[in-house]
Amino acid sequence: MGAAATTLEPHLPLIAADVEELRQLPGLSWPLARLVVLHPGASDPRRRWPPAAFAWVGERLAAAGAQLALIGTETERGLVEAVKTAVQAPVLDLCGRLSLGGLAALLRMARLVVGNDSGPLHLAEAVGTATVGIYWAFNALTAGPLTRARHRLLVAWQFRCPVCGRDCLTASCSHSDSFVSSIRPEEVLAEALALFRSEEGRELHRQEQDAVLWQTT
Prior knowledge:
alpha/beta, six-stranded parallel sheet, 14% strand, Rossmann fold, 6 strands
């Protein structure tokens, strides 16, 4: 319609209530340095990477110095618990403890978010945090970020249902097994470690940028 583009990616600023909610949350150590947020959920089960794979990646990020946090809604409690049980590293369980605004503040403070193609992953992109996303091929084309310097995609090109073998390019079936489980944890870890190291200090810089909000709450 003739409108000039000013940016390629969405940007969502925080408000004072967002950071106040996060500041009042028990169990967080300030400043939030080296925080990596893991989100194993997604509304469509076919877009969910296995919890064991998240745990494997989380352990190795923790060994590299990351402070781990798990997020999810109450309906995703089982997925979060599965990761929490499997991961052999300290992890902060924030499942069901944050509103959408509080979640935005947490993601803004994080150095990195690793998650399935879902609302929290896109929210992390919008508040300026680096991401590693697990995508099914269709969704990578329609919903993936447009740049790669700070947003990495791992894409599963599986089109046949892993249960019945139906080609989901041309038809659908009633099964809900994961279409992204073929993505190797080693691939995700490589992208996550690269961003975790290259993003060092950026989360503290973002906290400095948001200092006015912290002072006015």
